[in-house]
Design a protein that fits this description.
The chain is 39% helix and 20% strand. The chain is α+β, with helices and mostly antiparallel strands. The strands form two sheets. Strands 2, 3, 5, 6, 7, 8, 10 and 11 form an eight-stranded mixed β-sheet that branches.
Length: 303
């Protein structure tokens, strides 16, 4: 062994290293590296190839189902409000009157697998999204449980209200614990919520009634020209007779006017005829003479 070592591996202190020794050292180092790599690969293969068996498991996603009830806050009889849902998670509320408060009560059901959750409240054309306080388990509530949450809801313009149940904790819950009920978009039990629709901060009610009153209550103007001022009732026969007289006078005037025009035309024609003036003068003189001669009876009376 010593001879092999001196022949292939020994390096003298004061002499030169031989080529055979250098190649032997390189070959031995390479062989050791390959053996180590093989040992590591074998151990890793034996570790990951071991079989593991287990029974079938069903993985379910947590669900949070709720029940929504709504009624007028003042207990007055109003138009019917419809609450529509298909899975007890998404709710649509229609038929809310503008400017009127409705009490909304949200209760979690026994079908909920999540221990706690909340409800998102919004509406069509409403820029705000509200979160209710935690429903079911709540470490900060009395007794550690909040079985239901009630609040009064009002819309400022006709719209459809959306309620969406979420399992887990609301993003406003930490701020509620630290600062109390300071968050506007966080709904607590018994709070009033005004949903601003279409940018109307205040509800506008009674538009339809006002228009109907103006239209139905207006009276058509009457003609009081022929009505008497002394408070008596006009006689329809008298009005007809007046109309008849007026029409007759008009007809008379209309009938007389052509004759007048014809006489004027005849006089003008006579003036233009040469012998007409002489005849007219002769007739006039004759009439005068006849009228001036006394009758026999007149002469006898004078005598």
């Amino acid at each position: 062994m010593k001879e092999l070592y001196n022949e292939y591996l020994h390096v003298p202190k004061q002499g030169k290293i031989r080529e055979k020794v250098m190649l032997s050292r390189i070959a031995l180092t390479s062989v050791v590296i390959v053996i180590c790599l093989f040992a590591m690969a074998f151990s890793a293969y034996a570790y990951f190839s071991k079989g593991i068996t287990s029974g079938t498991n069903v993985i379910k996603v947590a669900t949070f189902e709720t029940k929504v009830e709504i009624q007028p806050a003042d207990n007055c009889v109003r138009s019917a409000v419809t609450v529509t849902t298909s899975d007890n998670k998404n709710f649509l509320i229609n038929g809310l009157e503008v400017g009127k408060y409705y009490t909304v009560t949200i209760t979690h059901t026994v079908n909920s697998t999540a221990k706690t959750g909340f409800v998102v409240v919004t509406a069509d054309n409403c820029p705000d999204t509200y979160h209710t306080q935690q429903i079911a388990k709540d470490v900060n509530a009395v007794g550690g449980q909040t079985p239901s949450v009630s609040f009064d809801l009002m819309i400022t313009d006709p719209s459809t209200v959306h309620l969406l149940a979420h399992w887990g904790t609301s993003s406003y819950y930490a701020s509620y614990n630290d600062n109390g009920d300071q968050e506007k978009l966080y709904i607590t039990h018994g709070e009033d919520v005004d949903l601003i629709i279409n940018g109307k901060a205040k509800p506008v009610t009674g538009q339809g009634n006002d228009e109907g009153t103006d239209t139905e209550g207006s009276e058509l103007p009457t003609d009081n020209t022929n009505s008497p001022t002394d408070g008596t009732t006009p006689d329809p026969d008298s009005s007809q007779s007046e109309n008849t007289d007026v029409s007759d006078s008009d007809d008379t005037d209309a009938s007389d006017s052509p004759d007048t025009e014809s006489d004027a035309d005849q006089s003008n024609e006579l003036q233009n005829v040469p012998g007409a003036e002489a005849n007219a003068d002769t007739d006039t003189d004759t009439d005068t003479d006849e009228g001036s001669q006394p009758t026999s009876e007149d002469s006898n009376s004078n005598e």
